Amino acid sequence: FLGDTGKMEGAKKDKAGSKLSVERVYQKKTQLEHILLRPDTYIGTVEPITQQMWVFDEEIGMNQREITYVPGLYKIFDEILVNAADNKQRDKNMNAIKITIDPESNTISIWNNGKGIPVVEHKDEKMYVPALIFGHLLTSSNYDDDEKKVTGGRNGYGAKLCNIFSTKFTVETACKEYRHSFKQTWQNNMNKTSDPKIKFFDGDDFTCVTFQPDLSKFKMDKLDKDIVALLTRRAYDVAGSCRGVKVTLNGKKVPVTGFRSYVDLYVKDKLDETGVALKVVNETVNDRWEVCLTLSEKGFQQIGFVNSIATTKGGRHVDYVVDQIVSKLIEVVKKKNKAGVTVKPFQVKNHIWVFVNALIENPTFDSQTKENMTLQTKSFGSKCLLSEKFIRAATNCGIVESILNWVKFKAQTQLNKKCSSVKYSKIKGIPKLDDANDAGGKHSSECTLILTEGDSAKSLAVSGLGVIGRDRYGVFPLRGKILNVREATHKQIMENAEINNIIKIVGLQYKKSYEDPESLRSLRYGKIMIMTDQDQDGSHIKGLLINFFHHNWPSLLKHTFLEEFITPIVKVNKNKQEMAFYSIPEFDEWKKQTENYKTWHIKYYKGLGTSTSKEAKEYFSDMEKHRITFRYSGAEDDAAITLAFSKKKTDDRKEWLTNFMEDRRQRRMHGLPEQYLYGTNARHLSYNDFINKELILFSNSDNERSIPSLVDGLKPGQRKVLFTCMKRNDKREVKVAQLAGSVAEMSAYHHGEQALMMTIVNLAQNFVGSNNVNLLQPLGQFGTRINGGKDAASPRYIFTMLSPLAKLLFPSGDSNLLKFLYDDNQKVEPEWYIPIIPLVLVNGAEGIGTGWACKIPNYDPREIVNNINRMLNHQDPLPMLPSYKNFKGVIHELGQNQYLVSGEVSVIDRNTIEITELPVRTWTQAYKESVLEPMLQGSDKTPALINDYKEYHTDTTVKFVVRMSEEKLAHAESVGLHKVFKLQSSLTCNSMVLFDHMGCMKRYDSVQDILREFFELRLHYYKLRKDWLLGSLGAEAAKLSNQARFVLEKIEGKITIENKSKRELIRMLVQKGYESDPVAAQEEDDHEGNESDSSVDSGSSSGPNFNYILNMPLWCLSKEKVEELLKQRDHKVLLISLFFIFSSFTSSCIFISLDTRHAHIIVFYMEVLCGLLSKRDVILTVRLSSVEHTAESCNYDFMTFHKQLKERRCAVYIAETLLCVCPISDTVVAEILQNMHLSVSPNYAQ
């Protein structure tokens, strides 16, 4: 029924205005009449429309152009064509479709050689099957939804619609199975039907539909060129989408051999934005999916087919494919997107042109026109999983480059919006800006913007501007280091307030060239002056600012646009004479050239904040002395800036740092001074010099912080912790958080407190995979192997203190030989400590610096000690395998510096295995979550491998009991349990990079090379320690000798000191040959290059120093004090003799006879003697000298000596005689030992 069955708003009337009857208002139509009356419901509109469509033109092939056509006519043709293509799915032997379009006679014919329609009478409908399905509505072979078909027909209209909208419609078919052919014709919109003609047939099956569309229904008088071009394209569509079928059109073979060649019709002669032919990526995924992809420059484009139906509006089959492509491409784009603009999936999609040919089971569409496929993906009946090969090719076909170009364009557009082309005299909304009064005006080119490092530096600049005025100078403080714009993302730049503020303040415009000096007049400031601290971080800020301008406006650097303002780093004054130094090397040179430089008052300037307002005014009043202009020297400047800040120059930067360190090594070896830029008369410098002589120091300092020293195996932060602990010498435990504060105070630690606390925690950790020898004690929860130390308690709740082993590894006797560093005139940690064994091998090392990375595994300290003993005996060290304390697994060598680390797993029974060890640094929790849980849960691709697992491990041990089926366990055993359960990891040592003792980075090829270099250095420092001890003992002996001589000469009356001035007394002592304080002189020599350069008014250090004699108290003249002085002097002389004797021994066996009269000497120097005799065989005899000194009275002393020797691994024997084997003559030995009350037998044969 047609019409409104509700309440009529008014009586309907005919054209003449007469009231219509009820019969005319409410009408009943047959379905055929309804189709003809309302065709848009079935075939789409029958009105001509004009729109962009892909058509086939003989001259140019596939062409997207504007055409005028009737969708209804297009649809009825397509129904017959798709029916012919569907026959391929019913008959795999079908291989031909013939299409004829004759505009002159208004006749269209479509023939296929697939299986014919059964020429048999339908028993229910009492008519032949071809007549039923072509001449009666709602008849179809597609009504069984349980049958999975990949055909285009579905609703039972299809070919009948073509029949209805044709003036003549003829069907011919032949069925070999039934041995008959069929032919029938319908006319007058299926209203008139001829009788079917049935004939005997013995040929091949075929079906042919010929029709003459009723052009009057489509408001057409003939088949025009546009509709013919569109129908021709559909012939080509079928040729490309229907595999194995050859299509002929009007007697000519369509030149398409498959889907790939069909796609070529679209991309033929098309070029991308660079003028290169479009690249097509294709893949036949399986027998139901074919995908081709290329670049689109017109937004997203798709050409899709479902069961040969052209889905011109796409659908879920296209979305299914495109979503996969987009997700992969967006990952690549994100990695390459340096502009940093956020790229969304739809934006990636806009650069894609995809072709999809799919066979889908029982597809659904949103209309009878079938332009949009709506079936849910899960019901497709097949999957289209694009291969990695296809995705790789997709990323290289030009799409990614096109997206990136679009991203750059968008980024530039957004950046341009941040800039203003108008020069404002006043700008607002920028916090902390002190704008120059003339900025933005007619004198703007004469204005200078001072960019300072922080607010305190701004205060200094503002104080200085009080001298020269504010009209031509503006000040803007930077909040730390600015962005490296060369490698920053677009988002970072857009959101970086500091960069945008600088652009706004100066009046810069992106992409504008400032090559012409006249263009500088468009800026609000004619110069930028950088004012930072004179340290490495200050240099880095300067470099980042230079990089900022060079990257965006390289032409600015060709003018004298950038300057820097330098301030003293050291000032010295004496007697109203003052000198300023702008670099430490310059100051060091001055010290070497200046005698008694310590008589000068020395002040270090840590940063700009150290300078006073008065000094600021002094700096600015002499502006030319402190202003350094950057001058452009050509391409070498560009190359230097790019080298320092471009990611692409990583390898070149590595070589740059290597050359720098080698130059430093040579300078230190030859005693040459460091290079420096800022001398007293420096007025300008090139960018190349700045990068290669100043900025490089910052880059190198990053390596110094990240990569340990070969000598002590420590990084600076770790060394500061050890220094503080040794200096504190705590007897009780201390909180980690408190120790961190102490480290910051005592060692001038300038970085984050949290990082420092983690450094302390790491030094104390001792679980498997951490330290073999922890230098701090873990008194609390410092982390376990469960989470790799990340489960440590808060530093506020855990305690630590120096490990007893640390005190043995770092002998206090070496401290006088170390070169201690100074930070802001504060003595801090040494350049490196020198332990008795190479800790860098004991605890391993890891670190990533600038251009360099270090990774060294742990080694067994016992093996290291054994190798050192071999080297002491002039043998080569043996190879060592990495070793981790308490690790129960196995480490195998695979090749040079390559190892395989295996955990432990064993089979308990047919269904159970037990994992008792994991590879080193595979943490228990991570292993459970990343290995066992996925094996238990399984996935879409991989079924579950294990049935269950139980955990029995502790914080120090690992134990997983895993249950699995007998079959899967047997298979795992055949593959290898270690491999299946990921219980093996590789360990590669190809990056053994360390700082050597000269402070230069060095790559080591093997562990033995590290061991040898350490050995030679440690041996050298033992000699230095011996020399220092001898020098110290000699100085102490000389001091005691002078004091004893002075007392004796005073007692004997040879010296008179009463009523004499100090000057007279000093002159007298010099004349009598007394030495100036030997101990003070020794200490001064020891600390000459390492002493504090503080403001010591060392008038006392000029001339001889006899305070050690003249300040002796009066009671030193007493008999007891004289005897004590003489005894102390004899002790020192004896100890020196012992040093010479024992250090000359070549034998490992030493024989000593001790006189009981000198037992007190042994006790007094027991520690030193035991150290000298360490690890030797000692034959000890005791000789009684008198009744007063019995063996019983000395028993305790000798037994203590005996015990200490044993503790030092000496083999001690009691004997009657003494044999001393040494490389000096018998006479000398006898004489020395006689003076020492020791005896020797010259009979070496004994």
Automatic annotation (TrEMBL):
Q: Where is the Topo IIA-type catalytic domain?
A: 707-1154
Q: What does this protein do?
A: Key decatenating enzyme that alters DNA topology by binding to two double-stranded DNA molecules, generating a double-stranded break in one of the strands, passing the intact strand through the broken strand, and religating the broken strand.
Keywords carried by this UniProt record: ATP-binding, DNA-binding, Isomerase, Magnesium, Metal-binding, Nucleotide-binding, Topoisomerase
Q: Name one GO molecular function term.
A: metal ion binding
Corresponding gene?
Answer: top2b
| Pfam families recorded | DNA_gyraseB, DNA_topoisoIV, HATPase_c, Toprim, TOPRIM_C
Regions of biased composition (Low complexity) lie at 1092-1102
Name of the protein this chain belongs to = DNA topoisomerase 2
Which ranges carry the Toprim domain?
Answer: 447-564
State the species of origin. Answer: Sander lucioperca
Q: Which family does it belong to?
A: Belongs to the type II topoisomerase family.
Q: Cross-referenced Gene3D superfamilies, in alphabetical order? A: 3.30.1360.40, 3.30.1490.30, 3.30.230.10, 3.40.50.670, Histidine kinase-like ATPase, C-terminal domain, Topoisomerase II, domain 5, Topoisomerase, domain 3
Q: Which stretches are transmembrane?
A: none
EC numbers listed for it are 5.6.2.2
User: Does the keyword section mention DNA-binding?
Assistant: yes
